[in-house]
Amino acid sequence: MVWEYCIEDRFVDAVLFPYRQPHGTEAPGKSVATRYPISGETIVLCESKDTLNPELIGQALVYRQLAIAAGAEVREVFVFSENATSSMRRIAKELGLCPEVLCDT
Predict the structure, then answer these.
(1) In this structure, are residues 48 and 81 in contact, taking their beta carbons and an 8 Å threshold?
(2) H or E, element range at 15
(3) Which SS3 state, helix, strand or coil, does residue 47 take?
(4) Which ranges of 1-105 does DSSP label H, i.e. alpha helix?
(5) Beta-carbon contacts of residue 62 (< 8 Å; ≥ 6 apart)
(6) b vs e for 43-59, b when ≥16 Cβ sit within 10 Å of the residue's Cβ?
(7) Within a 10 A sphere around the Cβ of 84, how many other Cβ atoms?
(8) What's the pLDDT score for residue 34?
(9) Residue 103 has pLDDT above 80, yes or no
(10) Average pLDDT estimate for 6-34
(11) Terminal Cα-to-Cα distance of the chain (whole angstroms)
């Protein structure tokens, strides 16, 4: 998993490479994309905020499209939040996202 992955000067919270062996190395800032290119790779995107809202959903959709344009095969996009309404969960699912609510109250 790579944290704060830079795609076109925007930072995705995390990118998981499910078919790569972990190395345990770090690469700062924008050099992450050079060290771990996504072109031709199957990836999982992760984005998070306190609340599942239109902003988080929109961000995740934009990042998915940027990753696809960069040549990645995006297997899933997870949107993590601490709370969400049932309508925001439904909309996220309808748009092909995987909403995960961590401590819904």
Answers:
(1) yes
(2) strand 10-16
(3) strand
(4) 31-35, 54-69, 86-94
(5) 10
(6) bbbbbbbeebbeebbeb
(7) 21
(8) 84
(9) no
(10) 81
(11) 29
Q: CA-CA distance, 38 to 21, in Å (whole number)? A: 14
pLDDT digits (tens, 9 = 90+) for 36-55: 899 999 999 999 999 999 99
Nearest to 3 by CA among 13, 63, 27: 13
**Separation between Cα atoms, residue 80 and residue 17, nearest integer Å:** 18
Q: How confident is the model at residue 21 (pLDDT cuts 50, 70, 90)?
A: confident
Angle at 30 between CA 28 and CA 35, to 5 degrees: 75
pLDDT attached to residue 25: 62
Model pTM score = 0.89
